[in-house]
Input
Amino acid sequence: MWTVLRDLLRHNREFAAGVCLLGIVGLIAALSALSPYSPLDSYVVPPDLPPGLPYVLGTTSRGQDVFWMLTFAIRNTLLFGFIVALISRLLALLIGLVAGYAGGWIDRALMSLNDTFIVIPLFPILVLFYFVMRDRMSWASLALVMACLGWAYDARLIRSVALSLRTREFTETGIFSGMSMRQILTQEHLPFVLPIVFSTTMNNINWSIGLEVTLSVLGFTDINTPTIGSMIYWANQHTAMVAGIWWWVAFPVVLVVITFVGLFLLAISMNEFIDPRSRLGRGMQ
Amino acid sequence: MTDAVTPVVKVTHLRAYYSTHQFGVQREVRAVDDVSLQVMPDEIYGLAGESSCGKSTLIKTIAGAIRPPLAVQGGSVEFDFGGNKLDMYRAAPDEIAAIRWRHLSYVMQGSMGVLNPVRRVQQAFVDFALRHIGQPMPQFLDTVRAHLERVHLKPEVLRAYPHELSGGMRQRVAIALATVCKPELIIADEPTTALDVIVQKGVLDMIRSVQRELKTSLIFVTHDMAVHAHLCHRLGVMYAGRLIEEARTAELFGAPQHPYTQHLIASLPRIGRAAPTQALPGAPPNLAEPPSGCRFHPRCPRAMAVCQREVPPMQTLPGGHRVACFAVTPP
Output
């Protein structure tokens, strides 16, 4: 594992750049632990100061320090992306592997559910969800809903691999030697699809962060939890661009773009990792 | 082989059909039709026949590794592992699970693929054999290493991934995997077909030496008659889902009785023969609509009127030579 990472860092420029960018973003998120102010307090610093010392990225019209605010915002946004990706990956793996392996009516039932989730329009559903939930809307419930909406494409992808794995000799021999379905799925099929899952995880994080920012900017989420989207929402509420407080909008946007680019670079460099020959060949040396 | 020895597997009137029902059309492919055979302990039984004659289906059925649309329509497969008797299609599922791999193992067609490409070879042994061998992990690995030495493989292959091994080595590992529990019966479906002749000879010698050492029985399927001549004690020939002839290998090659077998043997190239080999016209029948009577009669040079009407019964000639043909009369 570590040799693979080292070799990827050394020989794959996309991977190295992606790791650097995400490292910067992660460091900023980690700094939130050192923040002198609570993210929920306002008017703790003089409002509307441009970037400079002692407030490096300036202050907002609500009297918050943009830099420290940003550390909380990116932390929550990243956490949101990871949690959505984690839950939706588990769903996709479970449904994809079971449908591909079991076949028959189980496959048909799971795939019709899957296709339903593929065709329903996400954005109106999420907006509707906000109007139903209103004040009970929280960061965690939004993550859960997004995870439940975000597994379908990858479950189909995993199923297609599982369909071919089912006919392979190691599966048949496993069945013949008396392995249970659970053992075959976890021991024989899971290692096969994991690299694909790693790569789709990056895309899924990107997708969920993008959607969360979109919803927050429009105010369709819990706007009191600081995220990149809710920062931009509050800046819009205070007409920051009209008032010339550009730093309130610009820095969150720059940071989230860095995150997107980093994740995208990681996802494309995963292609090299996905090929078991190059991956395992390197692992053996 | 005395009468006191009971066969390790006894197949009686086994019929296994692929039946599909699609778009309102019922189709039945009679891949195995009324096959009876016995395999004795410590015997290599060869099964010959051209592609799509039902060889693989027959041994899949014997191994109990069948899946819809393949279904057994009649007959029985009875095992006798040292007094431990069992009927494959009447026993409880856990009884069958208990004999598999431990007493009955199966080297599948394309068996190089039994190794999962993303896992080390050792994992295959752990996954398939550990729970059958009844040993804790460290002893189990010692057993596996000792067994690998028996088949002339270095224990280091356990640490390798399948793509790091050559085709011949993978095939040896696959056979080591099937024999590690020292089963009484091994069923092997074309284990050497994908190998070139030199590697093939090495693998065949290995199979034979393992068989001699473990005194197991082996059902060996291939369409390659040279391999059969090299390895098998007895040989059964299948045509279009039926067993048509069975005899000791030397006898079958020396004095084949069934017209199909005679042509099969005559078609083999021989050193020193100048005349070109004769091909038999026609092609094997479609098993969804097999010919009436003897399934070979449309291509048979000795076909009679009765061949079209009736299925020839299996008759036993002296020396245990069995043949299903009306043209053969016992002396």
Notes: The CA atoms of residues 133 and 293 of chain B lie 48 Å apart. Chain B touches chain A at residues 63, 65, 97, 100-101, 106, 108-119, 123-124, 127-129, 131-132, 160-161, 163-164, 177 (CB under 8 Å).
